[in-house]
Amino acid sequence: MAFFPAALDNLIDRFAALPGVGRKSAQRLAFYVLSLPEQETAAFAEAITAAKRDVRQCRICRNYTDRDVCPICASDRRDRSVICVVSDPKDVLSIERAREYNGLYHVLHGVISPMNHIGPDDIGVKDLLVRAANDEVQEVIMATNPDTEGEATAMYISRLLKPFSIKVTRLAYGIPVGSNLEFADDATLTRALEGRTEI
Amino acid sequence: MAFFPAALDNLIDRFAALPGVGRKSAQRLAFYVLSLPEQETAAFAEAITAAKRDVRQCRICRNYTDRDVCPICASDRRDRSVICVVSDPKDVLSIERAREYNGLYHVLHGVISPMNHIGPDDIGVKDLLVRAANDEVQEVIMATNPDTEGEATAMYISRLLKPFSIKVTRLAYGIPVGSNLEFADDATLTRALEGRTEI
Hints:
By secondary structure, chain A is of the alpha/beta class. Helix content of chain A is 43%, strand content 11%. Chain A has helices at residues 6-16, 23-35, 38-54, 71-74, 89-97, 125-132, 148-161, 186-194, and strands at 56-57, 64-65, 82-86, 104-107, 139-142, 167-170.
C-alpha cells in the first residue's frame, strides 16, 4: 500500500535523483514544494524548463550562456592571448570573483576519467587545441582541480599543447591564504615548500 | 556583469530557496539539471506541476492524498477508535513502517509555534476536536516530536481533549532500540528511568 499519492512519490523520486540529495532530503524538498502557493510551484517548474531551453554552451569557450558567444569571449576588454582551462562553469565564477584574471576561458565540462568512461573527446579537448593553434594565444593556464583526475587531465592536455609554441602553466599549489599551518595536509605542505619564493 | 545567463541564475535562486539548500548546493543542482537530457528536465518540471495539481489533503485526516478521502481513512480494516496525531505527513509513513499501529491518523501540518506566528487555528486543531467528539473514538495518541514545540502542542491539544471522555496518550520516551547508553543524553536517560517497566 502506497502511503503517498503517486504524484507526490514521483516528485520525491525526481528530487532523490539529484546529486547529493538522499531519500529523506528528497521527501523534505517535495513536502516543501507542496506547501508553496501554486504560483510559486509554477514558477519553479518554469525555471527548470526555461533554463534548459535558454541556456547553451558558448560556441568558443563552452561556458554556459544564453547567446551564441558568451559575454567574456565577446568582450574586447579581455586579453585574448591567455586561455584559462577549467573543468566546470562554476570555476569561471570563482576565478572572476578574484578579479585578478583578465584573459579568456575554456570550460571542459568534466575531466578525463577512465573509471567513468570519460575520454578526451567527451570534454572537447579538440576545441581547445583548435583555439590554441590561433596566433593570438600565448599562454594556456591549466586550472583543473588539484585532485587525481584534475591533475591527470592537466598533464594530458599540456602534453598535447607541447607542439604549439605556447606557454602552458598550472595554478600554484600552497597554503591557502588565511588558513593555519596546523591544518594543512602533508601533500599541500610539501608543494608549498617546493614552491617557496624569496621575500 | 553576470557570469551566468539569467535563466540559469533564476534556476539557482529557485533551488537556493528550498530548505537546507545553500548557494553552492543550489548551483550544483542547477548545473546537474542543465546536464540532463531535455526529456528529463521536462519530466522534472511536470512532476512539480502535477504534484501541486493532484495532491490535496484528505478531508478527514489531512494527510496528503490524491482523492477526497485517503486510503487509510477509507479502509474498513483500520481501527476507527484510535486517532494518532502527528505533525507531518512523513510521520505517518514512519509509523506505518513499524507495522504496529492499525488506527487512524490526524496530520497537523505543523506545530504550535508562537515565535513563528503559528497558532492552533493554523494547524487545524478544531478539525481534530470535531473528530474526537465522534462516539467511536476512544483514544487519541499524541505523536508530535519530542522537542519543545512538539511537546507544547501535545500538551495544548490534550488539555482541549480533557472534556471529552476519551483517553489521551503520548508516545513513550526512552533509549532508542539498538543504541548505546553511552550516547544517550541526560534528558532521554531521565525519561527512560522514570518510565522503567518491570521485566
